């Protein structure tokens, strides 16, 4: 209160603040601004105002006494005995109702200073506005100078850039003569009795030393008095930084010690005053403060440490440290919380469901958490602890936050955070559902080129399969007329796109409607499970391709959109580029031949004919080096405007045998500039005069007998045959039949007039030949009545014998129980984990409106195969008008006398086929006949080449390691990929090939190594589909794989139509026959069938394929020792034609532990990569052949002729490209070490040469029920001990060789009631096991990159 100048400054600063108050300042009863009284006198000042009043005085150490009127009257002496300031109420006045009186007794010099009355309830204390003050001098002649309160006799005055310095030597006598020591009065200094001496800054600057001592002196009664000594020192004023440690909020328990460190970084020589504000400051006595000042190179560090011991709840609150310099003031605050006991509290931050988008760089899962002390935090995903395992390498847990980097769809799931305080036995957990949305992706964009030529007038199906999260509800189709578009590479989308995703910026798209569309169409859209993902499939079916247009399909969900552009180019050339021979494919010598090279103008240009050097024909046609082994030919180039095609025609007027050979047409792609070649082999048939292979012989026949004369003649071209009898022309008439192009002459019931000389004449361009034979007729015809009697008697005897034989067969036929029908003869079943085995027939639906085919539309043909209970018959299916045939099909039906159980088994097979659905590599269901007016018939696809086992054996002699990379093949690949992804929803195919569409005959083409890999890949792809439909095959073998046109293989299940009692591949076990050589160990010993046991069978199937149809385990007796060695790890050695890569896949499939075998999706990936590899292994050829035939398949036993093999290698590998998934997986490395094989055992067996004897039969390989029970008992005893140890004790994996195929089982173990109870041993699966030992490439000489 001594610095009245500061009060005036405050008054000016806050004048605007209080301007809004309508009040008058308080008034004092003392006139003037100051008052002087003698020391010892009582000071009394009365203040009146409009609001509640209060007082302030110079000496803060004086105690304030609130005195009431009663205290004044009763004991005024008690109050006077204690020195202090008495403040009491007094009587107000009109307009100023509030009044307070200040009374100070026993005054002395140090009470000199400002006494201020102010409004108590108003924060701004401003003289003249909200306050009134008076300066009171207490004349104390013994103490003329007012000393500083509570300070020593030395006071420091810091100054910085101020213009003047005040030396506050205050006096108690107003008119006292005061001198300032060391400074003369003529140096500009001024005196103020209420303030002291004011020294100008210039005076101080003239003094050379950095600090000065000043003292004020006065003389009274010849006595000199000194004031406090003042040290005036120049100092800094800047506070650079202030930090309060800890920087975050502090949490403590009751009784802990709180330590706060307040550190200021200040300018050199800056005086710092630290002040603390905290909740317990007024009452807390356990507080200590420590001050530390540390000089640094560029500044000074001042530290003040606040320590509070034994904290309690009242110490909770905000702690503020203020660092003050001469000119600056900086504050830092921190929150201190004192807890009574440990606790954990967690809650959702953004709700229980959190969403993000795949492709985000980082996403943080957050929860609200409050806990003390800090708990141990663990995060779980779908019940699995998130740690440093590779599967969680993109996740990092930070207490109550989980960060996921590079978010992908697999990160979706249920996340749980668990917080534990073990010492306090506290645990809390909270679960969140994390949804990763995926922008739509149209799968066909990655595998199908946007531009394809489509034959004019054909029915075409365009497919768009979209996957996204959430699933796109629909796929939109649009179209626009055919015209160029500009490329738009700046599309805005939510995920990164590749170069193939650049969509041309086409305008004028139109909605699909039947009125404006150029081609008639239908659109079908549905959702289905593909590769275990819910995808939206939409097909645009073009009924008749007439006009070239552009189509676009679009899929959209809430996080993105994807589009696929399809250039629907209609052409008259099916492949866009091909060769045509006219008038025939196999010209005769001297005939006219036209070679036409047709190329679509939209795609190709620069047509050129070549003829290959017959002595330098390469195994593969390479356009880049074509000129090295071919010479160019001429031709006439023309353009067909109506079809937009180029035609390069070369004419050979009279073809000769020397013209036979390979002709190549070369074209150039307009866009890429790449050259493509198409090869055509032209066989020339040399003219050959007719000649007899066997001459007709003379015959003598009886009357009424039959007569047949063969004219066995051949020539080129085929001769025209004619017959003469006794030199007279003979024609087809009643009783005389000319068959097989007049090659056979037949006469039924010869008469005497038929005797004579018969002459056969054969003619072609090279000449004519003839041969004769005489016929003599003897005997008399029997009486007519006798003939009829003989016929009747013979018919009766035959009928009696037939019925007796039929009765004998039925009496001795072996019958099986219904369980055998349901489980033993149906290989493909649904996973009993999904539907119980005995309920599958009732559970699965059958929609007759979709699948029923009228029986009168089927015309049954020959029997293709038969079993103990059923048969497969070739049939033709007709249109509803029953006039035109659609296609050849296969019909499954029961034999006569079938029981209700057998009927139920075939009905179950029908419903399982409906449940499975359509796939390119599965024999698909076409329909059924189930109405009660006839037999139950199941109509499926017909495969003309029979089963794969017979086909491979028949093709052994014609095995060649060739590849084909022609444009035609590549175009077929693209079409097959698109066709393979269409799910035909109807019970009949949407389109069937017309008879005019020429299919290449596989019998006329050699078999290559690539064919074998192709077959393996297709079977894996079909099994991948079956596994995705929760189906298990249980009998996967080459005999159950059928070969169809275009080199497509299909998985089938003969079921009731296979006679397992006669098939040597099925070994008897008790009352059941099982394909033991194809069964996995867990299926043999524990009757466990899963998709992984099908993988074992697939490995055996690979062995069959690469041995060209040999029987597995050649020379090995199927007995108890075989089963034991198989369980102990003995395996078949590599087949003759298998490369190390293929054999490595077999060994992976034959892993003893099912979980260590590769899954079918992994096999599809590996075989697909191997199939598309540019190199082929060097495989020796073996031309052995065998004709083993099981007789139960759709077999075609005709082997290819040498003439057929002379034809060129066809372009037929268009089915062998993986398309099942939309995301490619990097190929894995398979490493197989030394394998113990059956050939190395001590068993006596036939020595095995380079080529196997495929005629080997396993008949007689029978295991008695007792022998199998002994094997199972040993196995279960060993397995029980092993399983118990595995379940209870730790597992030592230090010496275990873990398979590189780390994958979950794609099937489920089920119970087979045919073979007894399923044991529970060995069912513990470690889904997170990782190999402890990684084998290097150096340790794997047989390994290769698959």
Automatic annotation (TrEMBL):
One of its GO terms (cellular component) is receptor complex. Its EC number is 2.7.10.1. One of its GO terms (molecular function) is metal ion binding. Keywords: Angiogenesis, ATP-binding, Cell membrane, Cytoplasm, Disulfide bond, Glycoprotein, Immunoglobulin domain, Kinase, Magnesium, Membrane, Metal-binding, Nucleotide-binding, Nucleus, Phosphoprotein, Receptor, Repeat, Signal, Transferase, Transmembrane, Transmembrane helix, Tyrosine-protein kinase. CDD domains: Ig. Residues 1178-1201 are annotated as: Disordered. Residues 1-20 form the signal peptide. GO terms for biological process: angiogenesis; positive regulation of cell migration; regulation of MAPK cascade; vascular endothelial growth factor receptor signaling pathway. The chain crosses the membrane at residues 789-811. It is found in: Cell membrane; Cytoplasm; Membrane; Nucleus. Residues 858-1171 form the Protein kinase domain. It catalyses: L-tyrosyl-[protein] + ATP = O-phospho-L-tyrosyl-[protein] + ADP + H(+). Belongs to the protein kinase superfamily. Tyr protein kinase family. CSF-1/PDGF receptor subfamily. This is Vascular endothelial growth factor receptor 3.
